[in-house]
Design brief:
Elements lengths: L32 H13 L6 E5 L22 H13 L4 E5 L9 H15 L1 H4 L8 E5 L10 E7 L3 E8 L5 E7 L4 E5 L4 E5 L4 E5 L4 E7 L3
Parallel strand pairs: 1-2
Antiparallel strand pairs: 3-6, 4-5, 5-10, 6-9, 7-8, 7-10
């Protein structure tokens, strides 16, 4: 299944876009619709078939002929958007990721460099991502954000004999401070690619999330 939600406002009508300038047919038109489409397509594929999501590797306006392009409407996913959409799909249970449309992006463009970084980091986590999801109970509460919480923070747990990973993403347009209640022994977790650590107590831990922000926590088990 493919969905490409990074679309500039006011884009002219073109193939594969609805008249309102959106692509999808779900009520959620934000980047977090990626996870919603995983859920939808999982109902189609069933639990025991592999499911791949095709993510956005292009700017919509670049699909037009060069003479027809409006330079003010050329909008690529930035690193944060590509990183979030990949993890939104992974947390919802996708088995593989594909990016379509990179051939429409000029060689050397910043988008190529940022997408390469996304893919390299995901590749480095292949041993963890290949593990089955772990069904540990958890609960998420929020400090009063001053706005509604619709999708909130979602979490995927992976573990082996030596390691435990908590992959989390804020599916909201707004920032959130989340209290993640999960029964783990007290530990210090590395927050991958962020150069910081966080303390996890027997009650869980708290962390702040920007809009569509991903945090990946890695714990080494004690024996």
């Amino acid at each position: 299944c493919d969905i490409y939600p990074i679309i500039p406002l006011g884009i002219r009508p073109m193939y594969a876009l609805n008249p309102d300038g959106r692509q999808g047919d779900l009520s959620n038109t934000t980047p977090s619709q990626v996870g919603d489409y995983v859920d939808k397509m999982r109902k189609v594929s069933g639990d025991h078939r592999p499911l791949c999501m095709v993510l956005q590797g292009f700017a919509w306006e670049m699909l037009r002929a060069p003479a027809e392009r409006d330079s003010t409407k050329i909008l690529y996913p930035d690193y944060k958007s590509s990183w979030f959409m990949a993890w939104d799909a992974i947390i919802h249970g996708v088995n593989g990721l594909i990016w379509w449309g990179t051939a429409y992006t000029p060689a050397g463009h910043l988008f190529h460099k940022e997408l390469k970084q996304v893919v390299q980091r995901l590749s480095s986590l292949s041993p963890a991502l290949s593990l089955p999801a772990k069904n540990r109970p958890f609960h998420v509460e929020y400090d009063e954000p001053g706005h509604s919480v619709d999708k909130g923070v979602e979490l995927l747990i992976k573990e082996d004999d030596l390691n435990l990973w908590l992959f989390t993403a804020n599916r909201e347009y707004y920032p959130l401070k989340a209290d993640i209640r999960i029964g783990l022994p007290p530990a210090t977790a590395n927050v991958l690619y962020e150069g910081r650590t966080i303390q996890i107590s027997a009650e869980g831990f708290s962390d702040s999330f920007g809009p569509y922000e991903v945090h990946l926590y890695h714990l080494t088990k004690k024996h």
